[in-house]
Here is the input.
Amino acid sequence: MNISTLMLATVSLCSPALCATIPLQPQDVDDWLLHVVPLPKQVALHSKVTVPVAELCLVGTSRQGPADPGLEAWATELQEAGLQEMPSAEKARLRIIAGPLAEDNTLQGYAVPEAERLRQARNADQAYSLFSPDDRTVLIAGNTAVGAYYGILTLRQLMMPTLRQGDAGATIEAPLGSIFDWPDLAERGLWGGSANRDIEWMAQRKMNLVESHCKGLTVTDEGLGLAEFDKTLIERGARCGVKVVPIVTHLDQLERTGLFRVFPETLGEGDPEKWPYGGTTVKPACFSNRRTARALADWMVSLASQPEVTDISVWLSEHHVACACDECREKGQFVLEAEAVNRGYELALQARPDIKLRVLLTQGSYQFNDQVIATLSPEIGITYYDGGRTYDSSRNPMIYPLLEQYAAQGGWLGCYPQLTASWRIVCPWTGPQFVKARMVEFVDKGLQCLCGYATPDNRYYDFNVTAAAEWSWNAHGRDERQFARAYFTNKGLADPAAAADWAVSLGPVGWNLYGARVPYGWFFGAAAKAVEGRSIPQFGTGPLVYYADAAALEGDLELAAAACTGAERIGDASLIAEARVIHGYLRMLQAIVDLGAVLGKDRELSQPQKQDAAAAMAALDAATTQTAEGLRTWHDIVAPGTMPSRLEDTIQVTESTCADIGKHLGSLGVADPGRAYRRQTVGTWATEDFADSAEITKEWDLSDALEGAGTYRVQFVYRSGWYGLSIHRVRLLAAVAEGEPVVVASDEHEGSAAHRNKDNVYELALPVHDPAMRYTLAADVRGLPKDSPQDKQGCNGEVWMQKVRDN
Here is the structure.
């Protein structure tokens, strides 16, 4: 709706003292700009005016667009302060006028001095000019409604922190002067994680892109490809300047669409024994077959025919599993996919001449990316993803020469980087240096698009995602400390400057850790194997790649310890938990290095070696406990509720690293002091368990897993398959020799272990432990139904157990 007449409570005219114009010093401007993220490019504020909110008028132009919802949202904020109506524009003490620039370079009759420059700005559709022609007016002009909307966001960020309630009513401060602003990257956004939920949250940070999977890609029995997309996502995005782009999924994941069922000849030729890849089975499509290419074209046309859709993203195959027919082998899987994309896009353009397309490169296509780019039509954009090269937190540059040259020659290029510690594990990381390095590289190498990945939820990585919004808009504005101070100012910390110092100090420590793939993939079994095989990596390699020597590791340990103390002093619980996790992982690394020095190449240990190994094992145990507890605490603070499976896995692999090392040392006569208190895998369930019935009682032997009386926590963890596991009751049974087992502990409640867990943890209190008894864990569960369809199979998972420490 048009916001030409938004009204909030009229009171008397403001007093001369209240409405006086007050000059601003440079430090005043710097302090005020702490509330604005991202930082505008050019700011020249000379003074401010304080006015009663009742004498403030927000005026939108008659053109529809995101500018109007921006003003509406602002009016709602003011109304929530207890206000009701605004005066008319003529009677207002301060008028804020926002909207698109008119053809004659005016806005609501005011000349816009920067109008020609505004039209020539980089990414001009999002640029805006904010200025005050007099002390009663602030104008926000954009080339489009989106540009005006971004100007509104900037002004709101400046003004809302100054809102004050007084006896005579609410007052607010407005800046006078000018701001001229535009983004460095045309598109700034995310895919996956919580991106769909967070469209409005992202818009507040001037992010403007969400890529989202289609709800369904199908091939009908008549052979027509149909694409279904949630248009409410696009509608939500349109209200706040966020482009929502439907994804046509990886082209090696077409089995579920029904393509092979309707057209069996489209299934790729080859040996199915060679198709398992990366823990799954990929059934490749034959892209030499015209029906495969036609299905892709149909999906693109189907999306282009939906008026809400403006852009489409097609993802190339991830894997090297390809059709082995003569033509596919001759041309190559990825060239054929690119040719199919070209044909599909030609048809989509017939349905919608203005539809735009981007194609995602993958780790599968990496060695053929030059051929893919050469094959695709020049008007098709390229986005770069690689599971090992863009889902990466190392210090290595991300955009390699082929793509750098493509962008330099005017090609439209985007990138899918992780903005987190890892794509697979979930660990806290406030990383200003890491994010700034990525965004500066993208901007300086001429990219157009950031489509970041922040799994499983933006709440875990608020700092890094907000930092990506900052530096993808203004790459060479704030430095790391300046941004961190602005971020913590807006978070409301009592001492944002101290928090900024904390972030700048700990950020590179986390980068050294996570950039070396600790804990993923070093703690996914590799560390324990290295200890057992006496092959602990040397400094400068593997998990120690960023440490030239022992002194460098010790330096980071000292910085992390200081960060723990600093976070305590700042008094923020999330910072404390993060510092403890990073410090804990470094302590684990140090303990593993120490074990390597103690063990050497020996397979039998002397008594002094056993004593030194026991000390190192105790240090590893203490560090593991610190890390695991820090991860749990961090989750409870930043994203309370059900813990996501990847964070569960992170804790599990962290504890398993210690447990596996302890098991090896136990075989050498060195005790593991914390064995019982770390989660250990005590059983599994699998699809074949439900061959006779979906409802079963599954049992696992715990005789060697229990260590004394106490409370044991049992957790069911889904691993794979179409079905999760429903748990009804868990019991601990005890029996002497071949005697009848008796129940010694029980927990009965409904739980489920699936993609989303619910109440999947059970507690069993064992009052007395008798080593002579045989103990069994029994669970009454429901898994795979006998009548489940062939395309909906699988039910697999693990059972974890740990003893609860006495407080």
User: Anything to note?
Assistant: Residues 335 and 371 are 6 Å apart (CA to CA). Confidence is low (pLDDT under 50) at residues 1-13. The longest strand covers residues 169-181. The chain has four domains: 21-181, 190-477, 508-675, 680-803.
